[in-house]
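Look over this one:
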Amino acid sequence: MTMTQSLGPLADGGHAIIMGGGPAGVACALALQRLAAQMSRQLLITVVEGKQFTGERHYNQCAGVLSPPLPTLLQNDLDVPFPYYLSRDSIQGYVLYTGRERVALPEQGEPSIALRRIQFDAYMLETARSRGIEIISARAVDLELHADQVIVYTENKPVQGDVVVGAFGLDEGSAGMFRRRTTYRPPLALDSVVTKYHPGDATMAAFGHYIHAFLPAHPSIEFGAVTPKANHLTINIAGQRVDVPTMKAFLQSDYVNTVLPNMSKVGHYDQHDLRFFKGRFPRSLARGYYGDRYVMVGDSSGIVRAFKGKGVTSSVLTGIRAAHTILEAGISRQAFDDHYRKANLDIIRDLPYGRVMRRLTILCSRYRLLDPVLRAAHDRPELQQGLFGAVSGHDPYRQVMGQMIRPGILAAILKEMPHRK
């Protein structure tokens, strides 16, 4: 049984419980352990995770493209080497498509790494286990928050601690536990449908190392992507109301046939091809994402790069920042407000710009107003850079919007407007 702590910094003998063993939760656990050692404190850290990552018994709906500065972040802040051996492809850039136009957007710096997220999650969780962090392989079923402790009930056993970290993504069951006990309300989300396709060695070789991203005029699809991963392609779409019929329509569309001309004609697939998985990812900040003895990290908090991109990097960052708050500032609502929220202002302040960008993109896609933008980009490297930052999530949306509204850029786009068909 844990020794109860005050709401100040977690002291020697304190116990942190983390609900969720994905990148956000494991990053928080590893950061807590490392920081505590630097402060000469002994902590008990427990991660509760119901999924079995090893053996790939579960499917992760993430497209699995991890980009800088994640490798540096893992090494410098967690002393965890990035698992380059899990790489399935080195992403060299994007090809962006609208209704009638396309433009190549080469990577400006270190390439992103495409891998299977379930393998990356297993690597991170096993790293935590190997360093002595307690892993409970069971689902959390309820929790209680009291003035002097927290209790997390699992399928295995109850766990008593001093602070609980919510790292459960958008899991509705876990979110419901906090809704009943706190003011927490999960972030709004977009639906995502993901599948994979093995087109054969020749097609994969011709496809290359670019992610093909689509901004179609389809009323339900906000964006789609086809991502190379060694011997297969991961295909995903996202929107507020996407489902399997929407994905099937996307696969048979002119957009995809532009990239994979034989997609609709192939009569045989790998046995695991074209199985559809449904997921969600946040598009807003959660409400009440911290309070006395609890804090949310990663997707649970909604503190992710707006619209798309950088989900894993943001998750790791928020996990690390929560660990610093717990050990340096405290586990009270006030400590999280003064320290954790402010530490994440670089992402939080960009969310409104991301929402504006998302709405503008949807509107322009519906009315095919993005075609002149792509035509203008062919001869404007600075416009290509802005589009790359928007599509990849590499750059803050405030910066992207600043690049896009420069007088020279706007003039180049307006010059292409008469060519609209």
Observations:
- Residues 311-328 form the longest helix (18 residues).
- The mean pLDDT is 89.
- The first strand starts at residue 15 and ends at 19.
- The radius of gyration is 22 Å.
